[in-house]
Amino acid sequence: MIVITAPTGNIGRHLLTRLLKSAEELRVIARDPTRLPDAARGRVEVVTGSHGDAEVVDRAFEGADAVFWLVPPDASRPPEDAFTGFTRPAAKALAAHGVGHVVGVSVLGRGTPLADRAGLVTASLAMDDLLSGTGAAYRALADPSFFENLLEEAASIRDKGVFADPDRKAPLVAATDIAAVAADLLLDRSWTGTGSAPVLGPRDLSPNDLARITTEQLDRPVRYERQPLDALRADLNGLDEAFVQAMVDMKRAKDEGLDTGVTRTPEATGPTTFEHWSAHTLKPAVFA
Fold this sequence. Notes:
Layout: E1 2-5, H1 12-19, E2 26-30, E3 45-48, H2 54-61, E4 66-69, H3 79-97, E5 101-107, H4 120-132, E6 137-143, H5 154-160, E7 162-164, H6 175-188, E8 194-198, H7 207-218, E9 223-225, H8 229-235, H9 241-255, H10 274-286
Parallel strand pairs: 1-2, 1-4, 2-3, 4-5, 5-6, 6-8, 7-9
């Protein structure tokens, strides 16, 4: 039995599609089961609710062999609460039910000088430490920023031909490639111990690279405007102050090279190019 959290999100929906092709028993935790794909109906067991709820994860993890863990973004509370606090009930349930394997979505940066002052990244790494102490074999999918982050700029690209971001050149990756690695680990389960599994894109891309490729794929001019961190802070005004600071600290750390410290190997490299992703995902979103 494999339990999937966040099964309708960017990564979870791709993971669910892959696992539906296997013979494994599947169980999902979903706030809104109506958002699950038609292929899942009658094929998966559904536990309705939040996977941050102790009663929900206790029911969901009973009899489970493996769990896919993803903490949803939450700008309403401090990052320590949003990551470690949200995960603590699950960690207790994993230990109580003797779940053997857990695959979690995490971040790059562990072991670097930037990791201790990287805001949301620092909070995510603390979550990994919590899960590593449950007794389960644990793999943290250490990811850079996603191609999918650019979908937040779809309206600006369509209306102004502009997207903004403070980040530097980095090994951006597609969510579907992260899901593929997660699926392999969840189905195999011959691995032991705790550690990380980096998932990088095929090559490092700068914001200007993204603008050039997007221009080619959309057949219209698109340019990149660097967003100062003060402007980012202003855009986030009204959200939890600690969350805003953590977001700014993460962006600063990424801009200083947080995501660039892992050597690209075939095992750690996803196949999806930004050209392919922008043609098949970004372009439809821009022209929707």
